[in-house]
Amino acid sequence: MNASTATLGKKDQPAPVDLKALKARQHGAWSSGDYAVVGTTLQIVGEELCEALDLRSGQKVLDVAAGNGNATLAAARRWCEVVSTDYVPELLARGRKRAEAEGLSSIKFEVADAEELSFADATFDAVVSTFGVMFTPNQDKAAAELLRVCRSGGKIGLANWTPDGFIGQLFKVIGKHLPPPAGAKSPALWGTGPRIAEMFSKSAVSITSELCDFTFRYRSPTHFLDVFKTYYGPMLKAFAALDEEGQQALRNDVLGLIGRMNRAVDGTMVVASEYLEIVIVKR
Predict the structure, then answer these.
(1) By C-alpha distance, which of 40, 94, 86, 43 is closest to 63?
(2) Cα separation of 167 and 160, whole Å?
(3) Whole-angstrom Cα distance, residue 190 to residue 276?
(4) What's the CA dihedral at 119, 120, 122, 123 to 10 degrees?
(5) Those residues with Cβ within 8 angstroms of residue 7's Cβ, 6 or more apart along the chain or in another chain
(6) Tens-digit pLDDT profile for the chain (283 aa)?
């Protein structure tokens, strides 16, 4: 290979993703709006994940990227010793209020980064995340942290949106109007069997997964859009970054997506969104 060919090869290689900048961008998105307004509607997913894990009373459970605490509350209702973590303090505060309202006073709430968990190795019997850890910029590092803090024989339970489901398609619509940094991995990869196997199989006794649906039920397609662009950080930030023409185009595309997937014929919105429910038993 001559010098010019070598130089060309280097130029053709994609620039590495600035994960620190991407994390700051994502933190800003999830800190904006009020995800708890949307997150509370997803409570059933936390309940079903805890059932899939077959949690037992007294087990130590860590909820990673817990948001407003859907899996946290579900595990605590099963008499587990739960630590709820997120890197957005305001979301943890919403989770704490929910726990107080139910008298679940034993839950611990801690600010923590999913990529740098502040817990010793093999601390927990179960580690869970519902639509949370999938948004970490450094996916492999986050997966390694979930494995590290889970004991041998313990379980990791995940609920992740799939690329082909409604929310996966919504990510693609947003990305069309506000492209992610070149080289950034899609969060929806966490909703695919091959990517889960790539990150976890070497440290797992078994990995089981099941495709499930969560149904979004709103007063109308425009009601969904108004709620999401007001409270759901990634969509709020996307609309804020666009001019008036761009906002209208994004609005039209979101409503078009809903129109194609909405099974309601009475003016309301009833849209099933596919997600992958995963249970990993650590080696």
Answers:
(1) 86
(2) 10
(3) 8
(4) -50
(5) none
(6) 444 444 444 455 556 788 888 888 888 888 888 999 999 999 999 999 999 999 999 999 999 999 999 999 999 999 999 999 999 999 999 999 999 999 999 999 999 999 999 999 999 999 999 999 999 999 999 999 999 999 999 999 999 999 999 999 999 999 999 998 888 999 999 999 999 999 999 999 999 999 999 999 999 999 999 999 999 999 999 999 999 999 999 999 999 999 999 999 999 999 999 999 999 999 9
Q: Which domains does the chain have, with CATH numbers?
A: 19-214+274-282 (3.40.50.150)
Q: How far apart are CA 231 and CA 253, in angstroms?
A: 19
User: What are the start-end ranges of the H helices in 40-109?
Assistant: 43-53, 70-77, 89-101
Element (H, E) at 140: helix 139-149
- 70-77 and 89-101 helices cross at what angle (nearest 10)? 30
| Dihedral angle computed from the Cα positions of residues 5, 6, 9 and 11, in that order, rounded to the nearest 10 degrees | -100
Distance (Å) of CA 147 to CA 131, 150, 268: 17, 5, 42
The torsion region of residue 97 among left (phi > 0), alpha (psi -120 to 50) and beta comes to alpha
Report the alpha-carbon distance of residue 265 to residue 139 in Å, rounded: 40
Q: What is the pTM of this model?
A: 0.92
Residue corresponding to tokens 């999938």: 134
- With residues binned 3-state (H G I as helix, E B as strand, rest as coil), the percentages for the chain, rounded to 5, are 50, 25, 25
Phi, psi of 30 (to 5 degrees): -75, -20
